[in-house]
Design a protein that fits this description.
single chain; Spore Coat Polysaccharide Biosynthesis Protein SpsA, Chain A; 2 domains; 7-stranded mixed sheet; two-stranded antiparallel sheet; 9 strands; 43% helix
Length: 298
């Protein structure tokens, strides 16, 4: 299966770039995937590393990049990153395959999957915060029907441009755009192929997606240095503390899983799991996890 992931120059030089390297190492370990990286920006040490490790790099940009730039200049819109928008370019870039896999960079492949049996009408995706909430999807793992995505792309692009130009949302991203434009038209993907650490430990999960808190957040929480200055930071802390046993189990299992592919990361995972165990007695009272019930649509 052809596998796409995406990143921009700034992301490649930061923590997301390290996540992408881990994703590639684990993809190579399980096998059956042809890595293709959608990239925006200048070539650098990160892209050189990817090429040395057999990744085909495709320089691209959202077809509506000028719209984003004009709205940012006007102060009516701010993209989280251009890298996040690159996934929507897949049906324009891909010309050979009928179906392809897309994942975010912050995933770990845990077992080989028979991707060929997943053939959605347009694309398949799994839920975001709860494994059984199909109100909307998380775009971190998707199987795309390339021809159908390409056929619907003009309308999709028009929808995005209209929303950005409308100024209705200062922060508007590709996941919201995909959910809005394809509401009711997407197929359900096995949640085990986009499993989140806070869902509990499940050894059957094929892809673990570090949605929300990354490893550095867990380390900061246990060190007492994680800030609580905004709602997102407070939510991340609740996700970890409210599901701390799940995170301990996953970090321990991943540390074991990665010993032969990335020993420094494996040791870091085990160290963080131990720190979370020591942190457990400091948790007092129930943790408000009601945000996991969020729906995008009424």
């Amino acid at each position: 299966m052809r596998w796409y992931f995406a990143i921009d120059e700034a992301g490649g030089l930061g923590a997301t770039g390290e996540d992408a390297k881990t994703a590639l190492r684990t993809a190579r370990h399980v096998g059956g995937l042809e890595p293709h990286l959608l990239y925006h920006g200048a070539r650098n040490d990160f892209t050189a590393w990817m090429e040395r490790n057999g990744v085909r790099i495709i320089d691209t940009a959202p077809s509506f990049l000028a719209t984003i730039q004009q709205a940012e200049a006007a102060g009516t819109y701010k993209a989280h990153s251009i890298g996040h928008w690159l996934r929507v370019a897949i049906p324009l870039v891909e010309q050979a395959e009928k179906f392809v896999l897309y994942t975010d960079c912050d995933v770990i492949f845990r077992r080989r999957v028979d991707w060929d049996i997943i053939q959605p009408a347009i694309f398949a995706a799994a839920p975001e915060f709860k494994a059984d909430n199909w109100n909307y999807f998380n775009a971190g793992v998707m199987v795309l029907n390339v021809a159908q995505m390409r056929a619907t792309y003009p309308a999709f692009e028009a929808h995005i441009v209209s929303r950005i130009n409308g100024g209705a949302l200062y922060h508007y991203d590709d996941e919201v755009a995909l959910n809005e434009a394809y509401r009711g038209a997407w197929d359900r993907l096995d949640p085990g192929l986009n499993w989140k650490p806070y869902w509990g430990y499940d050894a059957r999960a094929g892809i673990l997606h570090f949605h929300g808190p990354k490893l550095a957040v867990l380390e900061a929480i246990t060190a007492g240095t994680w800030p609580a200055d905004n709602p997102t930071q407070r939510q991340y802390a609740r996700m970890v503390l409210g599901r701390i046993d799940s995170y301990i189990a996953w970090l321990t299992a991943l540390g074991d899983h990665l010993q032969n592919t990335d020993l420094p990361l494996a040791l870091r995972l085990h160290k963080t799991a131990s720190a979370l165990i020591r942190h457990k007695p400091k948790i007092s009272g129930p943790i408000d996890m009601s945000f996991l019930e969020m729906n995008m649509f009424a």
